[in-house]
Each structure stands twice: as C-alpha cells, then as structure tokens.
Amino acid sequence: MTPRLYQDLAHLWPCLSPPEDYTAEAQIIHDLLTEHFGDRRLNLLELGAGGGHTLYHLKHHHNCTASDLSPEMLAQCQALNPEVPTIVADMRSAQLNQTFDAILIHDAIDYLLSIDDINQTLRTAHDHLRPNGLLLVAPTETADTFEHASATDRHTTDTHDYALTSTLERPHTPHTFRLTLDITITDRATQAAEHITDHHTCGLFPRSAWLEQLHDAGFVATPRETQLTWTLFHAVRP
C-alpha cells in the first residue's frame, strides 16, 4: 500500500519537510558532482524526486529532471520548481529515451523491498547514464548500522503548526524496517488539532549487498562518508 503522504497527503509535504531543510545534503551532493566532473553545469536526473526539495537547491547549478512514481508528489515538485521537467515513472523500469551526466537516488530507494528491485533500479540508472556518468545512491538506513530511533521535527506557517514524529523500528521480517510518521496539525487561531498516522515499510540491506548489486549492474562503486547520517554510494559507469 502506498503511504498516504505520497498520495492524498502530498500537499502537506512542504509544511512537514520544507526545502530549506535540504540545504546541507544538497551541498554534499553538489560537492561530489563537482569533485567528479569539475565545476560545470550537468544534466542531472533524480529518480524518486518526490516533492523536489533537493532539486530546489541543485537546479541553480545543474539542468535537472525529476522522475517519481507519485503524480501527487511530482505536482508538488512542479509547483516548487516550475523550470524542472517532471516525468511519472517507476525507477525500476523507467525508459526516458535520454541519457544524463549524473543520476541521484536518495531516500526513495528505501521503498525497494527486494534485491531484485534494487538490481532493476540500478540497471535502469546505468542505462540512462553517459560513459563516465556518476550515480549517487543514498539509502536512509543500512542493516549494518540500523538502530531503533524516534525524532520530532516542528515547523510553523502563518496559519498552522506542524509536528512530525518519525519512528524507526525493525519488525520480525527480513530485510525491512518500519517507518511510522505521526503528524499533528494545529490551527494557530483555534488551537484545534488533527492527528494523522502514516505507515511506511522500507527495505534494509547491508552495505555489502548494495556494493554487490552496484557492481553487478556495471558500476565501479565505493561507499562515501558524509557529515550526514545516511550512507552514500558513489558509483561510476565506465
């Protein structure tokens, strides 16, 4: 089942996780692109771009294209980034009829629940990259470092206060973790509050499995350490 946050609740995304929260990770991605290609404007594709909050920063440096399985999320992306082309497609099987200098897949890859899904996605990326193209893959969690955790983020608009509590748990099923989002929306004028819970099932694989699949898909890949908590794989198409 597709989480509600990517369907009927997609309009909440800019309030729960605003673009300014993505400044640091966008800078890390831009720095890695510059390290590989030098300081030039690239044709960049994000698979699983969601609301386009990372591309909001990267579009100032690169020619960006956004692809996602959710039309509702891409509508948010287009509202935020009207100059960025959007394409509704499944990252496992997309055929975009063009190639790119670089491809980014961030936390959308968390929703792949099997090794076969990962392999299909990495092959899709390989097919859409030019020679010496760079793929950056950044799953939120890996099995090597996963820990149960809970954190709350709060944001405010002129009319409402938003609280988003994210809880990570490891269920009794192999290769998955559960992300539970508890959302509270409070009307600032009346103090009336609405509570929403949205459940997400995500894939959880060790670094060795990611590297094996990247190599199998034709990449020269290494994990890269960053200042942020997620793991990032730097993969070059020869």
UniProtKB/TrEMBL annotation:
Keywords: Methyltransferase, Transferase. Its EC number is 2.1.1.234. GO terms for biological process: methylation. Coiled coil: none annotated. Pfam families: Methyltransf_25 (PF13649). The keyword Membrane does not apply. This is dTDP-3-amino-3,4, 6-trideoxy-alpha-D-glucopyranose. It comes from Mucisphaera calidilacus.
